[in-house]
Amino acid sequence: MADLRVHSVLVTGANRGIGLGFVRQFLQMPKPPERVFAACRDPKGQRAQELQNLASRHSNLVITQLNVTDPTSIKAAAARVEEQLGGSGLNLLINNAAIAKMSTLDGETLEDMIQVYTTNTAGPLLLGQAFLPLLKKAAQGSPGSVLSCSKAAIVNISSAAGSITSPFGWDKLQVVSYRCSKAALNMLTKCQSLGYREHGILCIALHPGWVQTEMGSSSGDTPPVTVDASVQGMLKVLSSLSEKDSSTFLNWKGNVVPW
Predict the structure, then answer these.
(1) Residue 29 and residue 228: Cα distance in Å, rounded?
(2) Is 78 in contact with 137 (CB distance < 8 Å)?
(3) pLDDT truncated to tens, each residue of the chain (259 aa)?
(4) Where do the H-state alpha helices sit in the chain?
(5) Which of 14, 138, 213, 227 has a 20 to 30 A CA-CA distance from 24?
(6) Distance (Å, rounded) from C-alpha 119 to C-alpha 13?
(7) Cα separation of 233 and 231, whole Å?
(8) In what order do the strands lie in the sheet with 92-95?
(9) Residues 256/206, Cβ–Cβ less than 8 Å
């Protein structure tokens, strides 16, 4: 993690679970980012209480209202972040916000498919578009041409459940809409890497592991990976990435996950 030096980072779904874990770890770095933007739907609500407590102790933490399914909300958040950055760019966009519907293959519905896909796949697409100018500015302001997460990057939090080659955990949870949305997110990551490489932006999909979060525990079993272990592992992976890793699908330990 020592080599990950970013001026600014934005994390979606930052009020709980892995998103909150990212915020905590960034704030605890020996040299933390000058701006940590923690985005969530209701910054003043009860579910954001832990973020509010952190913000009272860390002046570099900025809680940002953002609904990843609402294009107007996304554009407004990008404008607020740009204002806060005062002319500098955004180094790291972590698309973490996601939902899952606990349905079976036979019980999947059109409404669930649309809602899950909108949040998990279309949301990261729109966020990449909205924050592209700030990511480009960060890349342009960073010395050298080598891609890295310290320069400018989009990190899409995916899942091995979206692997077509090896569908993770099918025997425990079918969650078809979630699986489809994550497989599509992996393709989006590939598309972003192809489209944004010329701007100096690295794009990566990460599987955080089976983590002890509200979503991770929905099968009724206790996941083997803690939030802290997952996030620390992912940050270590991010610190080691270079141009050759852009567009790949890795897990929290840095191993390649089959598409």
Answers:
(1) 13
(2) no
(3) 447 899 999 999 999 999 999 999 999 999 999 999 999 999 999 999 999 999 999 999 999 999 999 999 999 999 999 999 999 999 999 999 999 999 899 999 999 999 999 999 999 999 999 999 999 999 999 887 799 999 999 999 999 999 999 888 888 889 999 999 999 999 999 999 999 999 999 999 999 998 887 766 666 668 779 999 999 999 999 999 999 999 999 999 999 999 9
(4) 17-27, 49-57, 71-85, 110-117, 123-140, 176-196, 227-240
(5) 138
(6) 11
(7) 5
(8) 61-65, 35-40, 8-11, 92-95, 153-157, 202-207, 249-251
(9) no
Contacts 24+ apart (CB under 8 A), 189-197: 189/154, 189/156, 189/158, 189/247, 189/249, 190/247, 192/128, 192/154, 192/156, 193/246, 193/247, 194/247, 196/128, 196/132, 196/135, 196/154, 197/147, 197/246
What is the full DSSP assignment across 123-182? Answer: HHHHHHHHHHHHHHHHHHTSSSS---TTT-EEEEE--GGG-SSS-TTTTT---HHHHHHH
Judge contact between 33 and 9, C-beta under 8 A. yes
- Can you read off the two tokens belonging to residue 41? 């739907």
- Alpha carbons within 13 angstroms on the beta-carbon side of residue 115 total 9
Structure tokens at 50: 């832990």
Which residue, among 123, 118, 93, has the nearest Cα to 199 in the 3D structure? 93
- The answer to whether 96 and 11 have CB atoms below 8 angstroms apart is yes
- Whether the full predicted model's pTM is greater than 0.90, yes or no, is yes
DSSP label at residue 122: I
Contact (CB, 8 A) for 117 and 181: yes
Residues 6+ apart with CB under 8 A from 229: 209, 252
